[in-house]
Write a structure and sequence with these properties.
Length: 253
């Protein structure tokens, strides 16, 4: 005798008497079927598939659980990232390494990308033997925000901004014509304010080959250095007027 489950009642033109009805409970739901219809089905050797029912030997889902769960759940189950041991789209803590594979020529698919409030897109990615932080849509090697090669050398797009971020500022200026045996003071304003008073180093930049230029010198005026600037003095020890170019470097916090 075939064993089967019934998931819907056949159409019965006229309801039979209670004595002729068989009650069948399936998964907590009670179904009523005419004994006469059931007997006819058995006699005709009707299979479960003929009436849209599942045979008793069919495998079906009895419960659902994520990899991080210990018990199965039934009914309408909502699977979250925590249930399967995955990170959510925002937040979460990594507990292991991410292996992005071997570096290639562009590695367009091997990158971490984020967008700032003003819409600028930044990427962290490998590039040949480089590690890059790139600002897009500017995407070529020469415009890296920061690049670190395998030998430890560093390339960057805006070196001035990086120097200032590290507390290093520099500049140059041409001194006004200074007569021999006199000096000229020039006030210098730093591009950005230092957190503390910096150290300032000055020197000449010249193409002069005159030996007499060796009588000239420059220095920072004592007590003139502040967080915003300093005063640089040029001494002309020559007998002729001089208009030198002076460079300076300030290092501070």
């Amino acid at each position: 005798m075939p064993i089967f489950q019934i998931n819907q009642l056949p159409t019965i033109p006229q309801a039979p008497a209670d004595a002729d009805v068989l009650a069948i409970e399936v998964n907590g739901i009670t179904y009523k079927v005419s004994k006469q219809a059931l007997a006819a089905a058995i006699a005709a050797n009707i299979t479960p598939s003929d009436i849209g029912a599942l045979p008793s030997t069919t495998t079906y889902v009895s419960g659902v659980k994520g990899n991080s769960e210990s018990t199965y759940r039934n009914g309408q189950v909502n699977i979250t990232s925590d249930n399967i041991g995955a990170l959510p789209l925002s937040g979460g803590t990594m507990t292991g390494d991410i292996d992005m594979g071997q570096s290639g020529a562009t590695n367009a698919a091997k990158r971490i990308q984020w967008t700032t409030a003003d819409g600028t897109v930044f990427e962290i990615r490998p590039y040949n033997n480089l590690f890059q932080i790139v600002r897009t849509p500017t995407d070529d090697l020469a415009s890296n925000v920061l690049g670190v090669s395998s030998d430890g050398s560093i390339s960057m797009a805006n070196r001035g901004s990086w120097r200032m971020a590290m507390g290093i500022q520099s500049g140059a200026f041409t001194v006004a014509s200074t007569s021999g045996g006199t000096y000229t003071d020039t006030n210098v304003t730093f591009p950005a304010t230092f957190a503390s008073v910096p150290i300032v180093v000055v020197g000449f930049r010249t193409a002069s080959t005159a030996a007499a230029f060796g009588h000239c010198s420059c220095a920072v005026v004592s007590g003139s250095i502040t967080t915003t600037g300093c005063t640089i003095r040029f001494y002309n020890g020559d007998t002729s007027p001089r208009i030198p170019e002076i460079t300076w470097v300030a290092i501070g916090g």
